[in-house]
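Could someone model manganese (II) ion with this protein?
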Amino acid sequence: MTVLRAGSATDVGLVRSNNQDQFLVAPPLYAVADGMGGAAAGEVASAVAIEALGEAFAASTDPTPEGLVEAARAANRAVWEEAEANPEMRGMGTTLVALAQVDGGQLAVANVGDSRAYVLHEGELRQVTSDHSLVAEMVAEGRISKEEAEIHPRRNIMTRALGVEPDVPVDLFVEEANPGDRFVLCSDGLPREVSDEVISAVLRRLADPAEAAKELVEEAKRRGGNDNITVVVVDVDDDEGTAAPGELAEAAGDPPAAEEPTAMVAAAAPAPPAPPAASDEPTAMVAAVAPATPAPPAAGGKPAPRSRLRHPSPLNLRVVGFVLVLLLVLGAGAGGVVWYARSAYYVGLRGQQIVIYQGRPGGVLWLQPTVAEVTRYTTSDVLSYRVQSLRAGQEEPSLGAARNYIAALVAERQRTQPGAA
Ligand code: MN
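Reply:
Sure, complex below.
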């Protein structure tokens, strides 16, 4: 039998004004959630998900992989219900990656969204999870390269998230708990800035999981810190404390690794003053939440012989009556519409004023777009041929992207007609 030792760190980063990431260290359960949504909604989504996950997993009689999946689905429902109950929270969502030691000692990893789990096994780093993002799917289909994905303008778009529909397919991976292995759960703020090589090097250098987690967060900040960064390092140790992951490391002078005996939930760091605009770019999500398709092979294409992906059936139709299923389908449809209608921004005109709207141009069914931001620019600040597309509404995946688009239009005019304006 093995024991787990964990360390964790989270940081708002250098650009965002608040930390929407949350993490959980409650042995034998560990998790990271990266929330999204306007105002405080992102923080609410990740906090609700983490709390519900912990409660549901603790309530299951035996820790099993299926129990972890059920706990993730309970977390999904909790976020969904919170959004339903609070109209100002509509459209919020969160990623969730969770790791739990289950009966038999194996490690189950459940994932929804673009947070990640990695494992360092015999010095080799492997991504356990597959990102539920547009660019990850494009890479899997061979349409773009991994390098192109890293700079793709739509890299923020997720294809699956927790809390945006009443139910969600959850990816499950089951890994052997080999003494010496190190697992990393992280929000996308880490891989967005830090290469696999650097992640791997830090894990090999620092034996203490808390120090490794902290250093990974620091590496992300040194490389830009454009997003919130959260890292939980979970080390697999054997009972006797031999073959500790530290044997791989050369952490001379490091203080002895402290175990974290009690459960703890991350408190989002207090918000420092907001930096000026154009950076507050919430992760956008595409409308169609993917059905439970097999996850593409982990980025990097390394074989994962010890990892099995299972697909729990979304609902046991024999138990749930036909009427219930019908209601659920209708509810999902309506919820999907609300979410689709609210999850985008576009740049448009109100009179001659350039305005950023939340919603879809022309609205969707009964859901009309609302003004998210009135800019100080008018149609006279952009080239005249741009006005028509503004009148139609230029869709952007996020508020930040919409601001960037306006800035680009204004810059374009100043370049072309420097004397004017
Ligand atoms: Mn993030």
